[in-house]
Amino acid sequence: MSKLNEYIRHFENTIQSSPLIGTYELHIDRKTEDIVYINGKIGFSDGSTLDFKEFVTAVGNEIDKYKYAYNYRKHDNLIFRYDNAPDPRARNLPSFPHHVHLPPDSIAESLSKNINDILNDIEDRMIRAV
Q1: Which has the closest alpha carbon to 52: 69, 36, 76?
Q2: Which of these, 56, 48, 29, 31, lies nearest to 40 by C-alpha position?
Q3: Cβ neighbours of 126 (radius 10 Å)
Q4: N- to C-terminal Cα separation, the chain
């Protein structure tokens, strides 16, 4: 199995194994054998939503996440958005281009994130809210 196929399978399994997910849409757009665009939406049991997208390439045995964004919100209220877009407001952060948007309108440094990190963060937030 190719490294990219393993990545896609792990991505799907991660979403399917989360106990707090009520619904999800997952779209896998295989551009070439080595390039995939993954996007979708996850609905959580508390009414919050995660919109996500990843543009991923396989180079040899390595996976390179060229672009990503994870936008977590409750109704129209942003809770966080992790991404690696070249936002001019994030240029001076040591982690640039990786950053996180936080309400009401701030940007902070962040490491690169993956779907596991994001779901763990959301699950921690939901548990603390109980």
Answers
A1: 69
A2: 29
A3: 14
A4: 41
The residue type at 111: L
Domain ranges of the chain: 3-129
Question: pLDDT by residue for the chain (130 residues), tens digit each?
Answer: 688 999 999 999 999 998 889 999 999 999 999 999 999 999 999 999 999 999 999 988 899 999 999 999 999 999 999 999 999 999 999 999 999 999 999 999 999 999 999 999 999 988 887 7
CA 45 to chain centre: 18
Provide the CB-side half-sphere exposure for 54 (13 A, CA): 24
Dig out the tokens for 95 from the structure. 């982690």
Helices (H), the chain: 3-16, 115-129
Cβ atoms of 48 and 79 within 8 Å: the answer is yes
Which tokens in the block code for residue 75? Answer: 């109704």
> Is residue 29 within 8 Å of residue 40, measured between CB atoms?
no
pTM over 0.85: yes
Phi, psi of 7 (to 5 degrees): -60, -45
Q: What SS3 state is found at 80? A: strand
